[in-house]
Amino acid sequence: MGVGISGIAAVTVLVSDLARSTRWYCDVLDLAFIREFSVDSALWGVVLLDADANFVFVLQDMDTTPGVRDLRGTRPVVLAAPSRASVNTIAERLHDMGLSPRGPVTDPDGTFVDVTDPDGIILRFRHVADDVSLSFQGVAYGADGGITGTYDHPHLQLPPRDAP
């Protein structure tokens, strides 16, 4: 199944202070600062590399993009952790760095820990359990982020597909 994609090569996150966020992401994820971009001599963004995972983060100055720029409280990036133990290790590392991670939390899909970047964007580290079901399951959350229940049928009503 799928269209032949082997993974995600990069994720772009809009940031309010490129230098501060570059330092934060490099420190938290142990990334290498490998590229910098400018347009008409104005700094636009950076590329940060995780050589072990063959993956890059692109941080873009939010003043260089039109439209919705506020991603506070969203989770645009979820990084895969190889085991539940690695999620625990990441949580400990974040605590040791003086950050305030949420978790580790175990839910129907596995275990995760969240940490908030300097712009209020949530970065999630997730281990997907080996026995996770790939059939539909709805998960209901309360305002505090805790799971309040699950359900078996989607609430979302999809429009019909256009005929070919």
Give a concise summary:
The protein is 15% helix and 38% strand. It has 164 residues and is α+β, with helices and mostly antiparallel strands. The longest helix is centred in the middle third of the chain and has 13 residues, at 84-96.
Helix content: 10-25%
Mean pLDDT: 84
What is the alpha-carbon Rg in Å? 18 Å
- Structural class per helix/strand content? alpha+beta
DSSP E strands, number: 10
Q: How does the overall form come out from the CA principal axes?
A: globular
DSSP strand (E) fraction? 35-45%
Largest beta sheet: what is the strand line-up? 1-4-3-2
Which consecutive residue ranges, at least 5 long each, have pLDDT under 50?
Answer: none
Largest sheet: 4 strands, mixed
Question: How would you describe this structure to a colleague?
Answer:
This protein has 164 residues and is of the alpha+beta class. 15% of the residues lie in helices and 38% in strands. The chain has two helices and ten strands. The strands form three sheets. It has a four-stranded mixed β-sheet, with helices on one face. A four-stranded mixed β-sheet has the order 5-8-7-6, with helices on one face. A two-stranded antiparallel sheet has the order 9-10. A hairpin with a 2-residue loop joins β6 and β7 (110-116). The chain is globular, with a radius of gyration of 18 Å. It starts with 9 loop residues before the first strand and ends in a 13-residue tail after the last strand. The mean pLDDT is 84.
